[in-house]
Amino acid sequence: MHTINFIANNVDFQKAPKNLIEMIMYQRFLDEKINNVRTRDLRDIKKSFLAELVEFDEETPESHKTWKEKEVDEKLLLEELTDVYFFFSQIVNYLYANNENIFKNKENNEKKDILILLDCDFKVENQGFTEDKKDLYLDIVEAISKRIVDLSYLLKLLGHFTYLYGYNEETIYNSYYRKWKKNLERIGKEWR
Prior knowledge:
Radius of gyration: 16 Å
Distance between the termini: 27 Å
Structural class: mainly alpha
Shape: globular
Order of helices and strands: HHHHHHHH
Strand content: under 5%
Helix content: 55-70%
């Protein structure tokens, strides 16, 4: 955890994260403040990721709820997508802290390099995947559902997915920060 502690000490929590690494640090800060009633494991986090992905889908014109007619609420849509990024960040933090997946048997300097590579992989742009939002959604579900998650691949899928819905990195970071501040206020009140 020394690398994450070093990075977290250099993060200004008074403004929106500037990159993926900072977003992951913000999530770590938030997660350390939440009092879970039981130990949270990777399966719990993956299920939370999937739940938020479904909530996002339900706000889109591509929703699985084909029997419903609903206008798109852009603000709510962005908030739900932001929640997906909250749980992606939580997955990275869990794997890092538990020396699992891409962080297994790595020294702290190697872990830092892995975080930097993930940050480099995060591009909200056309990543060359399908343009079909429903298929891409299912690709994300499949990627997160694997026992060993390919974080780089999942992140590229998320970047492409985010791009297809017309958002960019700055929009995600700013939305994340607004929701992060709101979530900090919920600790001890709504979250007990």
